[in-house]
Amino acid sequence: MLPKYKRILLKLSGESLMGDKNFGMDSAVITQYAQSIKSIVELGVQVAIVIGGGNIYRGMNEAETGIERAHGDYMGMLATVINGMALQAGLEKAGVYTRLQSAIKMEQIAEPYIRRRAIRHLEKGRVVIFGAGTGNPYFTTDTAGSLRAIEINADVILKGTRVDGIYTADPEKDPTATKYDTITFQECLSKNLRVMDMTAFTLCMENNLPIIVFDMNRPGNLKRVVTGDHVGTIVNG
Ligand code: UDP
């Protein structure tokens, strides 16, 4: 089976790691994600990953946490490193070679983010996990995903979510909502469909980086996406 994409960036939310739990991570989810990722590495796809931190800490809500926004955001970035390490452990257990690179220096546990080095790892078939988001407060891990995808010249950004694509309305609230197979960046804007936050979305749009939103929790889906099956919703053009 020939993959459609040579190099991808997979964006996973921190919350997805929780599975049915209320906090932290579920080892069954990590094992399933590791197997899914392994299946596309075996096809020869170069895989980079950005993972969120929302299952551990979200900095944005100063009113709720009582912690100043920028300070909380740094805490959120550290949470993404913990998730990155968990995913790294799961992947290595599955026999996949990995490197974790952090946007905030933590030399004992991760390489510093170095773009050319990340590309070299990818060329050697290693999965590269980018931790600590962009390294800057006031950004999200979606933005980190878009930014890193563009930097490494990924063919596409794959946003793994709980829903299987972009709908006319929130399918968890509106039963009449229907799914788009494809949609343009402009249509998303005019219909006010929030695929990612604006900073992340704009980066993709301005750099012609297609986004595929798909359900990562269904085993086999990731492989279907990279082999060109029509899974989820693709945003391009
Ligand atoms: N964060 C940040 N800069 C970044 C990426 C993340 O400040 O470049 C912080 C921000 O506080 C965010 C938290 O890290 O709330 C966790 O990331 P995010 O909420 O994007 O994770 P997800 O929703 O994907 O689990």
**Which structural class matches the secondary elements?**
alpha/beta
Number of strands: 9
Number of H/I helices: 8
Radius of gyration: 17 Å
Strand order of the largest sheet: 4-3-5-2-1-6-8-9-7
Biggest β-sheet: count, sense, barrel? 9 strands, mixed
Each distinct ligand: uridine-5'-diphosphate
* CATH architecture assignment: 3-Layer(aba) Sandwich
CATH topology: Carbamate kinase
In the residues, how many domains can be counted? 1
Distance between the termini: 27 Å
* SSE pattern: EHEHHEEHEHEEHHEHE
CATH top-level class: Alpha Beta
Low-confidence stretches: none
Shape: globular
Residues in helix, % = 25-40%
Q: Mean pLDDT, as a whole number? A: 96
Q: Strand fraction band?
A: 15-25%
What would you give as the CATH superfamily? Acetylglutamate kinase-like
EC number: 2.7.4.22
Keywords: ATP-binding, Cytoplasm, Kinase, Nucleotide-binding, Pyrimidine biosynthesis, Transferase
GO molecular function: ATP binding; UMP kinase activity
Pfam family, one: AA_kinase
